[in-house]
Design a protein that fits this description.
Length: 331
């Protein structure tokens, strides 16, 4: 099986080199001559490619040297949305051509933008990093984006939601290639994860740049007063805008209502406290603005897909280490 790992400007090197190491390891634990993968790094040309954070990587081949490939993986990209796609047309054409020839295509995190730009995700369910969801939807309205999902596969196309989800992606694309025992060995060797809870437990308030200074000031104020019952009313009164004007401008600037924005602030604060603090869940709910513990638990589960106690168990700052004696949290 021939596997092409795409090298393009802004590639996050860990999401290319991690799969590179794992894929090459299949030959060491497989049956000689039968389970060997030919894995190469390909780019538009033969020169080193500038990846994210000053890392340069050397491709093994230029794309025009690859006559046939079975699997194409696009790693995560550090995207400058204003300029990244300029000059990438030869690579996009190559992706379309080999997909038409029968190659499977897969992306890690923001690598989904490359597949979508090539038109390979139109009409298909796909995922990308939750923080890029709105930008992705605006640019590719024909893609059925689901950023709750960590991994989505449809036919010969797979997309993974975040950088380290390349592990789940490899398990999926290799499932019908490698014998089950060999796949299990890979999981055991590298402690590969599948991210069963999806992206929701990890989702936070994605950056939403805008030029409305009044709303930006309101956001800054809310960040320090979200636990107060009347924080939204006080925010709009401080803005000196009419209430309906404030709500309209807030939604236009942030992409959400002010009440949902405050919910997000509160849930993010609760997630941090659950991971770092031994306080009882009821107390954490109260501290972030919810006096009704049952309502807080339901809302937390709606936002994250898990209960506060499950979240605490999974994301505690030092996994497997309890709180100091006498300070065990009530769960």
């Amino acid at each position: 099986m021939h596997v092409s790992l795409i090298l393009s400007p802004g590639t996050m090197s860990y999401s290319l080199l991690g799969p590179w190491d794992v894929l090459h390891s299949t030959s060491a634990i497989g049956r000689p001559g039968r389970d060997t993968l030919e894995v190469v790094k390909v780019a538009q040309g033969n020169s080193p490619v500038g990846c994210a954070f000053g890392v340069d990587l050397q491709p093994d081949h230029a794309i025009d040297e690859i006559e046939r490939t079975d699997l194409i993986i696009v790693p995560s990209l550090s995207l400058d949305m204003a300029s990244w796609f300029s000059g990438q047309q030869p690579l996009l054409d190559w992706l379309r051509r080999h997909s038409a020839l029968g190659a499977k295509v897969a992306s890690v995190c923001t690598g989904a933008f490359m597949l979508a730009e090539a038109g390979l995700l139109d009409g298909l369910p796909a995922t990308t990093h939750w923080a890029y969801a709105e930008a992705f939807r605006r640019r590719y309205p024909r893609v059925l984006l689901d950023c709750d999902a960590t991994l989505l596969c449809e036919g010969r196309v797979c997309t993974a939601g975040a950088g380290l989800a390349w592990q789940a992606l490899l398990l999926a694309v290799l499932d019908d290639v490698l014998p089950g025992g060999q796949l299990l060995q890979l999981r055991q060797l590298f402690l590969m994860q599948s991210y069963d809870f999806g992206q929701r437990p990890y989702c936070g308030l994605a950056p939403s740049p805008h030029d409305d200074s009044v709303i930006a000031e309101a956001q800054s104020w809310l960040a320090g007063h979200y636990a107060e019952d009347d924080c939204i009313e006080r925010a709009w009164r401080r803005s000196a805008l009419h209430q309906r004007t404030f709500q309209r401008r807030f939604r236009k600037a942030t992409g959400m209502t002010s009440s949902y924005y405050v919910q997000q602030l509160r849930i993010e604060a609760a997630k941090l406290a659950l991971a770092d603090s031994p306080a009882a869940i009821e107390q954490i709910g109260y501290d972030v603005g919810y006096g009704d513990a049952s309502f807080f638990r339901r809302l937390f589960r709606k936002h994250t897909g898990m209960t506060p106690s499950t979240y605490r168990q999974r994301f505690r700052a030092v996994p497997g280490v309890g709180y100091p004696e006498g300070k065990q949290a009530h769960q």
